[in-house]
Design a protein that fits this description.
By secondary structure, the protein is an all-alpha fold. It has a domain of 38 residues.
Length: 85
């Protein structure tokens, strides 16, 4: 994946929509919600990278989990009726 630097147009004033920048800003906002990522607690960059990966895994797992407000009825096996002997 290639990183692309996007700069503001020369002479632009006020808000300017930059292509795909909102994706990066949104991701940084999600990561900033995790306390451990909001400050520089780690000494090694590998530790910081690991905490970011764990945070993103947590976000993905939360999205995969079914919504508890829309619960499906409990699954039950269909039972065949037996005739009494």
């Amino acid at each position: 994946m290639k990183a692309e630097v996007v700069e503001r147009p020369v002479g632009a004033k006020g808000f300017v929509l930059l292509h795909r920048r909102w994706v990066v800003e949104r991701t940084f906002a999600w990561l900033g919600r995790y306390r451990r990522n909001s400050k520089d607690y780690e000494r090694l960059t590998a530790s910081s990278e690991a905490t970011v990966k764990v945070s993103m895994i947590h976000l993905m797992l939360r999205r995969l989990r079914p919504d508890k407000t829309k619960q499906m009825p409990a699954f039950t096996y269909s039972r065949k009726l037996r005739k009494a002997a």
